C-alpha cells in the first residue's frame, strides 16, 4: 500500500458531481481503470474519515479503507470500465463490501476472485407479499412473530427441519430452486420472480469439497445469525405507483414478509476452500495484486472454473435455503390466519442476490462484451426491457430489494438505464456497517435496544438477545441516505418503502 | 398387374405384382382363386391342384390345370397372363352374381362420389380452413365485423378476420367476460419517454409491438407455470420434521 | 472473568473413560478417551478487538502453543458463552500448514468444522498435544459437548477464518506470544 499523508491522498480523489467521486489512476499502484464511488453529504464524511484514520501513522488495522480497496480492485488484471463503490460500501475481506467490478471473459488474463463475491455466497433478500393489511396483523403481531420464530430455525448452531440426506443435497446443489419446486416447497410463480430463475446452470456439486457439503447439510432451511433476519413489514410509502402495482402492492399498509439469508456454512466453506486453491494458482500464473487478500485465479484456469462451478452450487444452495424458509413462512401465516397461503396471495415479489459473480453482456465503450461481473454487497439492478428480468417487470425494471437494519425501514427500488451504463446494472444492497461490532457492544446496551424496538411498536424474537446491539441501527449507515443517494445518482429508482412491525433474528 | 381385380376379390396382397412366368406363383394364385372364390370343385377334388412345390410336381399339376381349364369352361386364350386374367374376371363375375342386389347400385358415378369424401374426414378443426376467402362478399362481411368490433382493417381480409377472432377470444368469450377487470391504471405508454425512435409515430408503434410481445411472453410463462404445477402433482411431497432441529425456544 | 471455568461441572455419567471411537469422516479427527484429570482450565487470555464488519481475535500466552489454544477458545467464546459448556466428549483433531500463518488458519478451520457438523462440538478447553513447528503440524484434544439450543446461549455465527491482518508475534523477552486473527461473521 502506498503510504501518503492524507492531503496528498486527496489529490487523487475528484468530485464528479453532487453524488459521485472519481478515484484517479495512481492512487494505488497498477490501476488499470479508474474507481468511482457514490455518496451523499453524510456518507461522504464517513468515507473520508475512514481514509484519514488509515493515514495516521502506526495503524495496525485489519482492513484497508474502502477507497483503497476500490483502487486495489481497479488494479486487478482484466478489469473493464470502472471499479464501482456503492453508497453502502464498507471495508471487507479483499473487495470492500459494496464494491462491484467486471472482468472481460475474452481477455485471457482476466481473473475471478472469491474475495469479490464474499464468504456468504448468494446472500440475498426475498420479499413476499400478502393481501393482508396492517390492521389485520397489528392485533396478532406478537403471535405471528412467535409463529414465524416457531417455524424458522434461527441463530448459531440451529439445524434445518426439512428432511435431507446426502443425495437430496447433491440434487439441490445442482438444481437450485427447481429442486424446491420438484419437492413441492415452492410455487411455480416463485421461480419466475428470482434472479437466474433460482438456478445457476453451471453448478457442479463434484467441485465442492466434502467439508462444505457436511457443513451445509444440517443447515439447509435455517436463517443463520449476524445480520440475517426475517421481518414482517408494512408498505409505508409508495413512490412509483405503477411499479408497485406490478409487484402486487396496491396501497400503503399492505403487509409483506422479507427474508434475508444466504448459503450458510456451505457457501462459507466453498469460499474458504477456493481461497486456499487460489493462493497456489496466483503463484503459478504469476498474478500480481496489491493486496494478498485479493486472492484470485484466471477465469479460464482450472482453479477459476472450479470456483465458478462450486460458487454456482453454493448459489443454488442459497436459493433452496430461502425457498425452504418461504415455505415455512407461508405455513406460519396460514396457521395464524387459518387459511391457505394461496388465499393470502403470498407470492414472491422478487429475490435478489447480494454476493455473486455472474456472466453478463454489457456495453463497454460502445461495444458489446461478455463480462464476469462480481457483485459483493451489491445488487443487480437491470433496467426496463432487459431480457434477463421477469416478464412482469419488463416495463418497470428489475425490483431491487434493499433490506434495512433491525428496526429501520427497507426499500424496494427498480433498475434504470443509467445504472446499466454507469455501474453495469448494480446498486446498493443495504445499509452498510458504520460502527464495528465491538464498538457497538461497548456503546450500546442490549436492553435499551430491545426497549426501543418495543416503543417503535416492533415485535422482536431474537436467538441471541445479548448481541442485538451489534445489529442496532446505530451500528449501520442510514439506509435512507444510501437509498436516496442511489436514487439521486440515477443508478436506481425508488419504488416503495417498507416499515417493520416484527423482526425475527439469529 | 391385376391390381383392380385382386382388390375387388379382396386378395390379401393386391398390390404385389404376380409374375405369370413364375409357375409356382401362377399355380398358387390359381389355387387361391379356386379355394376362395370360384369353388368349382368339391374340396376333396381340388387335391391335384394343391400339389405345388413337391418334387416333380409340375407334370401332375399341369395335367390337373389342363383339366380345370376345361371344367370351368375357359375359352381359348394365349399364354398364362391371359389365362389368369380370364380366371380373375370369371371369379369377379361369380362374386357379383352372388350379391347382385348389393353391387347393382355401385355405378361409376357413385364410386367416384364415395371416394371423394374419404379425404376430408380428417378435416381441420380450424374453421378458417373451410372458408372461401375470395370474393367480394367475404371481404365486405369481414369489414362489417371489424367495424362492429371497432378495430382497424387490413388490406387482406383474412388478416382482418384473424384480428377479429383474436379480439373475440381475448375479450368476449365467456371465460374472458367472467374475469374481473384488472384494477389500477394502465401503463402510461404513450406519455413514457422515447423507446426506440425519434419519430413519434414509429416510436408509438414500437411501444405497441413491445407490449404485444410482453403479452405473448406472459402467456408462454403462464403455460410453463401450468406445466410445472401439473408435474408437481406427481412429484411434490413437502415435509418438515421438527425433531431434526429446534425452533421457537 | 478470572473464575471463568468455575461453573463447569462434570456430567457424572460421562466421568468414566470413554470408548475409543474412530470417526469415519474424511477429516483427521476422532473421539478419544479422557479422564477428568486430563482437562486443563487455564485462565482466559484473549479479547475481541474492534473491527468494522468482522471481529478480530486477540489471544496471547507464555508460549505460542498457549496463544493458539487461547485463540481457538476465543472463537468458541464468540459462538456461545463458554461457562455453559459441560465437558462430555473429547475429540482429537489434526491440522497442518505450510507456514505459521497457514497452520493457525487450518487449526481454527478444523475447530470451526468440528462445530459446524457432526459432532457439533462446542469446546471449553483445548489442549494442543503436538505442536510441531518444523513440519507445521498440530494435534489437539478438544473438550466439550454437542451444541444444544436452549442449553447454550446463541452467540454469533463464525462464517470463516481469514488471513486478513493475521499477526503472530513472538517476543523472546518476557516469554509473551500474541496472535491476531480476523474471523468473518
UniProtKB/TrEMBL annotation, chain A:
Entry's EC annotation: 6.5.1.8
SUPFAM superfamilies, per the entry: Hypothetical protein PH1602
Coiled coil stretches, renumbered: none
Catalytic residues (positions): 429 (gmp-histidine intermediate)
UniProt KW keywords: GTP-binding, Ligase, Manganese, Metal-binding, Nucleotide-binding, tRNA processing
Binding-site positions, Mn(2+) 2: 123, 260, 354
GO terms, molecular function: GTP binding; metal ion binding; RNA ligase (ATP) activity; RNA ligase (GTP) activity
Residues the record lists as binding Mn(2+) 1: 120, 123, 228
Cofactor(s) required, per the database record: Mn(2+)
EC top class named in words: ligase
CC terms in the record's Gene Ontology section: nucleus; tRNA-splicing ligase complex
Cofactor note: Binds 2 manganese ions per subunit.
Binding positions for GMP per the UniProt entry: 227-231, 354-355, 403-406, 410, 429-432, 505
Misc. comment: Ligation probably proceeds through 3 nucleotidyl transfer steps, with 2',3'-cyclic phosphate termini being hydrolyzed to 3'-P termini in a step that precedes 3'-P activation with GMP. In the first nucleotidyl transfer step, RTCB reacts with GTP to form a covalent RTCB-histidine-GMP intermediate with release of PPi; in the second step, the GMP moiety is transferred to the RNA 3'-P; in the third step, the 5'-OH from the opposite RNA strand attacks the activated 3'-P to form a 3',5'-phosphodiester bond and release GMP.
Family statement drawn from the similarity comment of this UniProt entry: Belongs to the RtcB family.
Official protein name in the record: RNA-splicing ligase RtcB homolog
UniProt organism field: Pseudolycoriella hygida
Name of the coding gene: RtcB
TrEMBL record, chain B:
Pfam family, one: RLL
Protein name (record): RNA transcription, translation and transport factor protein
Species of the source: Pseudolycoriella hygida
InterPro entries to which the protein is assigned, alphabetical: RTRAF (IPR019265)
From TrEMBL, chain C:
Family: Belongs to the archease family.
Biological process annotations from GO: tRNA splicing, via endonucleolytic cleavage and ligation
Protein name: Protein archease-like
SUPFAM superfamilies on file: MTH1598-like (SSF69819)
Domain of life: Eukaryota
GO molecular function, one term: metal ion binding
UniProt keyword Cell inner membrane, yes or no: no
Amino acid at each position: 500500500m502506498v503510504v501518503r499523508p492524507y492531503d496528498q491522498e486527496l489529490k487523487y480523489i475528484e468530485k464528479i458531481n453532487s453524488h459521485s467521486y472519481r478515484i484517479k489512476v495512481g492512487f494505488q499502484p497498477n490501476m488499470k481503470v479508474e474507481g468511482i464511488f457514490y455518496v451523499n453529504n453524510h456518507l461522504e464524511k464517513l468515507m473520508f474519515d475512514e481514509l484519514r484514520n488509515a493515514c495516521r501513522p502506526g495503524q495496525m488495522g485489519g482492513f484497508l479503507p474502502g477507497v483503497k480497496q476500490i483502487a486495489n480492485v481497479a488494479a486487478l488484471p482484466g478489469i473493464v470500465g470502472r471499479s464501482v463503490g456503492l453508497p453502502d460500501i464498507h471495508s471487507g475481506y479483499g473487495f470492500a463490501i459494496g464494491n462491484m467490478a467486471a472482468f472481460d471473459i475474452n481477455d485471457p488474463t482476466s481473473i475471478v476472485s472469491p474475495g469479490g463475491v464474499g464468504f456468504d455466497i448468494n446472500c440475498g433478500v426475498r420479499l413476499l407479499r400478502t393481501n393482508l393489511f396492517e390492521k389485520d396483523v397489528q392485533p396478532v403481531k406478537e403471535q405471528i412473530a412467535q409463529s414465524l420464530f416457531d417455524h424458522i430455525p434461527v441463530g448459531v448452531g440451529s439445524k434445518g427441519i426439512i428432511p435431507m440426506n446426502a443425495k437430496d443435497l447433491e440434487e439441490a446443489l445442482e438444481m437450485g430452486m427447481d429442486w424446491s419446486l420438484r419437492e413441492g416447497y415452492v410455487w411455480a410463480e416463485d421461480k419466475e420472480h428470482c434472479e437466474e430463475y433460482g438456478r445457476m446452470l453451471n453448478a457442479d456439486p463434484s467441485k465442492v469439497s466434502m467439508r462444505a457439503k457436511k457443513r451445509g447439510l444440517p443447515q439447509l432451511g435455517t436463517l443463520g445469525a449476524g445480520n440475517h433476519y426475517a421481518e414482517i413489514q408494512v408498505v409505508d410509502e409508495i413512490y412509483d405507483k405503477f411499479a408497485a402495482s406490478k409487484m402486487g402492492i396496491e396501497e400503503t399498509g399492505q403487509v409483506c414478509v422479507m427474508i434475508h439469508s444466504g448459503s450458510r456454512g456451505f457457501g462459507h466453506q466453498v469460499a474458504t476452500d477456493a481461497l486456499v486453491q487460489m493462493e497456489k494458482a496466483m503463484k503459478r500464473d504469476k498474478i500480481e495484486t496489491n493486496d494478498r487478500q485479493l486472492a484470485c485465479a484466471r477465469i479460464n484456469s482450472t482453479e477459476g472454473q472450479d470456483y465458478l462451478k462450486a460458487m454456482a452450487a453454493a448459489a443454488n444452495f442459497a436459493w433452496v435455503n430461502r425457498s425452504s424458509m418461504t415455505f415455512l413462512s407461508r405455513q406460519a401465516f396460514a396457521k395464524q390466519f387459518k387459511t391457505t397461503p394461496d388465499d393470502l396471495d403470498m407470492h414472491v415479489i422478487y429475490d435478489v442476490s447480494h454476493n455473486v459473480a455472474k456472466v453478463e453482456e454489457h456495453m463497454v465503450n460502445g461495444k458489446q462484451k461478455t463480462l464476469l461481473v462480481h457483485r459483493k454487497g451489491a445488487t443487480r439492478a437491470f433496467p426496463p426491457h432487459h431480457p434477463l428480468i421477469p416478464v412482469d417487470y419488463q416495463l418497470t425494471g428489475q425490483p431491487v430489494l434493499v433490506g434495512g437494519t433491525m428496526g429501520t425501514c427497507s426499500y424496494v427500488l427498480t433498475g434504470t438505464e443509467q445504472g446499466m451504463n454507469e455501474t453495469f446494472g448494480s446498486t446498493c444492497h443495504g445499509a452498510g456497517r458504520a460502527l464495528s461490532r465491538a464498538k457497538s457492544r461497548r456503546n450500546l446496551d442490549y436492553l435499551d435496544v430491545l426497549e426501543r424496538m418495543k416503543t417503535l411498536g416492533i415485535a422482536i424474537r431474537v436467538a441471541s438477545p445479548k448481541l442485538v446491539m451489534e445489529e442496532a441501527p446505530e451500528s449501520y449507515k442510514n439506509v435512507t441516505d444510501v437509498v436516496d443517494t442511489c436514487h439521486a445518482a440515477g443508478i436506481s429508482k425508488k419504488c416503495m418503502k417498507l416499515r417493520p412491525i416484527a423482526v425475527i433474528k439469529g | 398387374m391385376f391390381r383392380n381385380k385382386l382388390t375387388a376379390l379382396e386378395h390379401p396382397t393386391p398390390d404385389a405384382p404376380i409374375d405369370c412366368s413364375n409357375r409356382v406363383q401362377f399355380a398358387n394364385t390359381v389355387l387361391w382363386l379356386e379355394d376362395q372364390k370360384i369353388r368349382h370343385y368339391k374340396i376333396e377334388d381340388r387335391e391335384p391342384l394343391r400339389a405345388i412345390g413337391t418334387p416333380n410336381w409340375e407334370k401332375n399339376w399341369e395335367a390337373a390345370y389342363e383339366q380345370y381349364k376345361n371344367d370351368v369352361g375357359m375359352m381359348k386364350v394365349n399364354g398364362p397372363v391371359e389365362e389368369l386374367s380370364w380366371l380373375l374376371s370369371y371369379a369377379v363375375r361369380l362374386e357379383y352374381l352372388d350379391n347382385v342386389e348389393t353391387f347393382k347400385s355401385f355405378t361409376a358415378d357413385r364410386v367416384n362420389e364415395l371416394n371423394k369424401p374419404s379425404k376430408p374426414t380428417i378435416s381441420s378443426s380450424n374453421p378458417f380452413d373451410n372458408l372461401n376467402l375470395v370474393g367480394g362478399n367475404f371481404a365486405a362481411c369481414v369489414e362489417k365485423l371489424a367495424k362492429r368490433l371497432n378495430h382497424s382493417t387490413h388490406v387482406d381480409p383474412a388478416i382482418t378476420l384473424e384480428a377479429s377472432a383474436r379480439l373475440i377470444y381475448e375479450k368476449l368469450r365467456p371465460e374472458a367476460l367472467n374475469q374481473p377487470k384488472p384494477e389500477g391504471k394502465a401503463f402510461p405508454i404513450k406519455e413514457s419517454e422515447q423507446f426506440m425512435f425519434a419519430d413519434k409515430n414509429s416510436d408509438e408503434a414500437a411501444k405497441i409491438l413491445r407490449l404485444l410481445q410482453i403479452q405473448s411472453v406472459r402467456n408462454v410463462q403462464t403455460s410453463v407455470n401450468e406445466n410445472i404445477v401439473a408435474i408437481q402433482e406427481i412429484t411434490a411431497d413437502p415435509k418438515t420434521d421438527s425433531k431434526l432441529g429446534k425452533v421457537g425456544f | 472473568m478470572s473464575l471463568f471455568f468455575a461453573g463447569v461441572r462434570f456430567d457424572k455419567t460421562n466421568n468414566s473413560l470413554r470408548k475409543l471411537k474412530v470417526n469415519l469422516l474424511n477429516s483427521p479427527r476422532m473421539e478419544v478417551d479422557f479422564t477428568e484429570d486430563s482437562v486443563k482450565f487455564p485462565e482466559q487470555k484473549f479479547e475481541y478487538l474492534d473491527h468494522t464488519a468482522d471481529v478480530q481475535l486477540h489471544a496471547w500466552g507464555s508460549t505460542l502453543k498457549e496463544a493458539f489454544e487461547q485463540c481457538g477458545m476465543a472463537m468458541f467464546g464468540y459462538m456461545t458463552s463458554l461457562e455453559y459448556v459441560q465437558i462430555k466428549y473429547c475429540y482429537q483433531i489434526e491440522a497442518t500448514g505450510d507456514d505459521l500463518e497457514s497452520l493457525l488458519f487450518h487449526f481454527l478451520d478444523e475447530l470451526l468444522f468440528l462445530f459446524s457438523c457432526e459432532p457439533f462440538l462446542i469446546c471449553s478447553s483445548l489442549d494442543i498435544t503436538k505442536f510441531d513447528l518444523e513440519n507445521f503440524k498440530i494435534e489437539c484434544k478438544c473438550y466439550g459437548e454437542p451444541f444444544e439450543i436452549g442449553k447454550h446461549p446463541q452467540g454469533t455465527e463464525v462464517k470463516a477464518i481469514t488471513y486478513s491482518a493475521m499477526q503472530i508475534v513472538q517476543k523472546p523477552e518476557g516469554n509473551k506470544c500474541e496472535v491476531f486473527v480476523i474471523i468473518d461473521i
